[in-house]
């Protein structure tokens, strides 16, 4: 199989070099280029990456603008936003604009490589801390939402258990540990949950969990 093609977009040369070394160390991943925000659209067109790691804060052209431009392309790559802060105010905006993930720049090398593989396979990636931040931005202090509650009633009791923990920002491994399940079983439950809820990713499912009154606040776990 051909390697997954990755483009890294960041205004700092040192950051681009570091990320390139990490991602390029995996035999199934190939860093086809790196550039600043102003060059991103051109580089995507020329290099055809499958995945773009995109800094959200750049002085020449901010990451949200770049993301929106990339999403208009005929065959857009999967884009994960990179940030230094797990409380970045752009997280919700980026996800609504079509980002497939949000990663901290200090993500462990093996986790970064794993995340790129998930993105290439059509999945979404969010660290648990970022998930909690997104939920905080989406959920207000009101009571349970009737539409969210209606959607939740489609789930089995075990799926409701998984959804509640998903709403707390727990990872698959943490959910598996909490419910004494295998991680593969948790993945299967999450796939079923997303389908029944009509949610595009686990973040949207987590928001529904909160609006349905199933999960505790983002700090609860």
UniProtKB/TrEMBL annotation:
Q: Where is the signal peptide, in residue numbers?
A: none
Which GO molecular function annotation, any one, does this entry have? DNA binding
Q: Where is the HTH luxR-type domain?
A: 148-213
Q: What biological process terms from GO does the record include?
A: phosphorelay signal transduction system; regulation of DNA-templated transcription
Coiled-coil regions, chain positions: none
Q: Which UniProt keywords apply?
A: DNA-binding, Phosphoprotein, Transcription, Transcription regulation
The residue ranges of the Response regulatory domain are 5-120
- Residues that bear 4-aspartylphosphate: 55
What SUPFAM superfamilies does the database record attribute to this sequence?
A: C-terminal effector domain of the bipartite response regulators, CheY-like
Q: Which PANTHER family match?
A: TRANSCRIPTIONAL REGULATORY PROTEIN NARL-RELATED, TWO-COMPONENT RESPONSE REGULATOR
What this protein is called in its record is Response regulator transcription factor
Provide the species name: Kitasatospora camelliae
């Amino acid at each position: 199989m051909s390697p997954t093609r990755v483009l890294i977009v960041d205004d700092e040369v040192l950051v681009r070099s570091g990320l390139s070394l990490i991602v390029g160390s995996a035999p199934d991943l190939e860093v086809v280029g790196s550039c600043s925000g102003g060059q991103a659209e051109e580089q995507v067109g020329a290099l055809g990456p499958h995945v773009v790691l995109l800094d959200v804060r750049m002085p020449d052209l901010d990451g949200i603008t770049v993301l929106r431009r990339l999403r208009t392309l005929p065959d857009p790559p999967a884009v994960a936003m990179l940030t230094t802060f797990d409380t970045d105010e752009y997280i919700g905006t980026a996800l609504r604009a079509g980002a497939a993930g949000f990663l901290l720049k200090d993500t462990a090398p093996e986790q970064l490589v794993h995340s790129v593989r998930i993105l290439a396979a059509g999945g979404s990636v969010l660290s648990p801390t970022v998930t909690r931040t997104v939920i905080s931005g989406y959920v207000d202090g009101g009571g349970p939402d009737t539409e969210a509650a209606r959607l939740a009633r489609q789930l089995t009791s075990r799926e409701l258990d998984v959804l509640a923990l998903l709403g707390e920002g727990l990872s698959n491994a943490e959910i598996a540990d909490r419910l004494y399940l295998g991680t593969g079983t948790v993945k299967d439950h999450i796939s079923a949950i997303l389908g029944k809820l009509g949610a595009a990713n686990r973040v949207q499912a987590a928001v529904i969990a909160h609006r349905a009154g199933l999960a505790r606040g983002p700090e609860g776990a």
